[in-house]
Recover the amino acids of this structure.
């Protein structure tokens, strides 16, 4: 064991996206400017770093049921096995001013499966970056953490997607995020009244379809349609951006019912972006939930599966939940969190 450096732990929150998803995916933000309204919830990506003294690094993922190991300073092969943490570790340890490490064990776990539509992969990346940076004596602010996570995922590893997940995990809370492309991101924290937060928690449901989505194919289809100028895709993306702004205003004014109705509108517009976003199960779940008391509902990620959120009339929320459970979905309540990625000393 390293005699000086402590065991470190980190957690980065997962998020639900209310509106604007897709407008953070290039080339839309560079050409037209994107905007997303999202909030982090009390589900997390966790990471623990335990120093070693034998010059080895190991990474174990509970979610994937796999582990890897290699020598400090040795070649790192990106072969599809835990490439996200490998990329973060390599980049951080190569920083100017990084303290030399004699190795460590890294253990990873999240509250939601990969592909769940809650931004779990990016939350893992954010947690690992902050954790390894602190181990190496480097301080990064939330913008730096999120920007590095984005570059590693999108540029270095070539994983399709947008900007919102990395910034949500790094900052935490309710945020209205503006994207202008090429790393030009502004995160506007929203001062949502406590009563509004409590009312949202009281009226919302999180439902898991039981199927992880293959977001890269959906995102690629969306981008292709936008770049070809397809009317439905272009109109859907522009409407998403406008709805994020409208929902922000409703949220700040405490109009929870209006937020619910706008959530439903965001779902209708989102489906215009790609024909692959909705599935028969998702479409039926939204339709039946609306019939029994939901004000609005939508998928929380790229679509095709993962999680969905619903805002309901509270007196009928239990009926909505029973209806979704009857369809085979897993339903849970949740709370919001105001804190982004957090790293602390653990016990050996």
């Amino acid at each position: 064991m390293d005699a000086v450096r402590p065991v470190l732990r980190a957690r980065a929150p997962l998020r639900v996206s209310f509106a604007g998803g897709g407008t953070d995916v290039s080339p839309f933000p560079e050409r037209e400017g994107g905007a997303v309204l999202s909030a982090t919830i009390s589900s997390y990506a966790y990471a623990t770093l335990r120093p070693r003294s034998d010059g080895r690094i190991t990474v174990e993922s509970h979610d994937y049921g796999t582990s890897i190991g290699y020598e400090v300073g040795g070649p790192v092969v990106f072969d599809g096995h835990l490439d996200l943490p490998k990329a973060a570790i390599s980049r951080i340890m190569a920083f100017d001013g990084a303290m030399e490490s004699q190795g460590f064990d890294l253990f990873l776990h999240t509250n939601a499966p990969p592909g769940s539509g809650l931004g779990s992969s990016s939350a893992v990346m954010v947690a690992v970056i902050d954790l390894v940076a602190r181990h190496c004596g480097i301080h990064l602010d939330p913008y730096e953490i999120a920007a590095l996570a984005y570059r590693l995922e999108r540029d270095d590893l070539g994983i399709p997607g947008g900007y919102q997940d990395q910034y949500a995990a790094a900052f935490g809370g309710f945020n209205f995020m503006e994207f202008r492309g090429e790393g030009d991101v502004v995160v506007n924290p929203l001062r949502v009244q406590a009563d509004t937060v409590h009312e949202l928690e009281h009226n919302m449901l999180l439902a898991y379809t039981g199927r992880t989505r293959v977001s890269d194919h959906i995102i690629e289809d969306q981008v292709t349609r936008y770049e070809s100028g397809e009317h439905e895709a272009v109109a859907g993306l522009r409407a998403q951006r406008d709805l994020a702004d409208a929902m922000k205003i409703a949220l700040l004014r405490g109009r929870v019912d209006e937020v619910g109705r706008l959530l439903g509108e965001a779902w209708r517009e989102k489906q215009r972006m790609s024909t692959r976003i909705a599935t028969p199960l998702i479409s039926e779940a939204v339709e039946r939930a609306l019939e029994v008391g939901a004000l609005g509902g939508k998928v929380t990620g790229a679509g095709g599966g993962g999680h969905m959120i619903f805002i309901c009339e509270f007196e009928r929320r239990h009926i909505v939940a029973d209806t979704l459970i009857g369809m085979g979905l897993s339903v849970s309540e949740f709370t919001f969190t105001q804190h982004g990625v957090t790293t602390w000393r653990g016990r050996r």
In short: The CA atoms of residues 340 and 347 lie 22 Å apart. The domain at 194-332 is CATH 3.30.70.890 (Alpha-Beta Plaits). The mean pLDDT is 94. Residues 231-252 form the longest helix (22 residues).
